[in-house]
Amino acid sequence: MIRKRKYSKPFDLCHSILFNEYPLEYTREIGVPGEFEKKINRRVHLKNGAGGEMDSAYLNKPDDIILFEKVATDLEHQSSYINDEKLNKIGDYDTQLVVDEHLPTLIVIASHLEKEKSKDMLIRSPSDITKLYFLDLGEENIRQRLYTVSQIINNNQHLSTENALNLGIIILYAPREEAWEITETVVNLYQKIAKNLDFKMETCLYQVITIMIDAYFDDEKEYRRLINMVEKNTSEKTIEITAAHQNTIESLKYAQEDLEYTKTDLKNTKANLKNKETDLKNTKTDLEKTQKKLAKANGKIMTLEKEVSEIPKLKAEIQRLTAQINGK
């Protein structure tokens, strides 16, 4: 049976969870140059007048290898290739970072897709260029991560924060054609370590893994089987918090939909008002034309009335002249 998905943007959501909970470790593990310092504003004023948001924005300290001074960084997760429309939007993100932070910028793209099929440079002027920095998170990279973490967990070796976080990274950036297989492997590894994780890491991984199961599995039976496996060794507190989080997301989703409908209604109302304004303008123009015609007609009438008023005088003058002639 085909099931209805619970999350509308699962990849962006999981990226946000990993970044918000472990910004330093996450950015370091996926290979972003430099070192995380602090989060900054990610709201953007787009050129079309609308508002937007970067996936994640932060100040990045130099590593003296690729970055040689502090930069304002936009880290974007991409599950589709970057086209001209998306590139222009990212260009707006770049401009916003400069306006907000007065620093050089670094625009980073995190994706499982090949960078060669995406647009990678926006030139607004000879000295104003946005060049995208792509991370290597393709199949080979993800397979190597999975092998390394599997070895650590299966051999009961010490599991660092970065090691555990890699379970979330692996399932998020899994090649789509192999996502089912990789997801099942990640779920099995999570089961082995869940009871030994601290609450923060357990909650983070539980949320990311269950959201990605929702994204990858359409069949209700397979979905439920994997969810049951994940929940088996997960604390009730984490499950309850995640359920509450999901309800909040659902509420926000409906609120956003209502907002979109309201925006559409306002847009239609604005268009109707504009049409009425145009009609009123046309009516005003017609009235002005009619008034000019009336004024012109009144002028002719006044001229005619003046000419008519002169007729008795002309008649009298004719009579006088006639009398003079007859008298002669």
Task: Give a verbal description of the structure.
The protein has helices at residues 10-21, 23-29, 84-101, 139-154, 161-172, 179-193, 199-216, 220-232, 236-309, 311-327, and strands at 35-39, 43-45, 51-53, 57-61, 71-77, 105-110, 121-125, 128-134. The chain has 328 residues and is of the alpha/beta class. A six-stranded mixed β-sheet has the order 1-4-5-6-8-7, sandwiched between helices. A two-stranded antiparallel ribbon has the order 2-3. The relative contact order is 0.09.
Radius of gyration: 37 Å
Give the SSE string: HHEEEEEHEEEHHHHHHH
Shape: elongated
Approximate helicity band: 55-70%
Strand order across the largest sheet: 1-4-5-6-8-7
Mean pLDDT: 88
Number of helices: 10
Instruction: Give the strand tally.
Output: 8
Describe the main β-sheet briefly: 6 strands, mixed
Low-confidence segments, ≥5 residues, pLDDT <50? none
Task: Report the structural category.
Answer: alpha/beta
Taking the alpha carbons of the first and last residues, their distance comes to 127 Å
Assess the beta-strand content as a share of residues. 5-15%
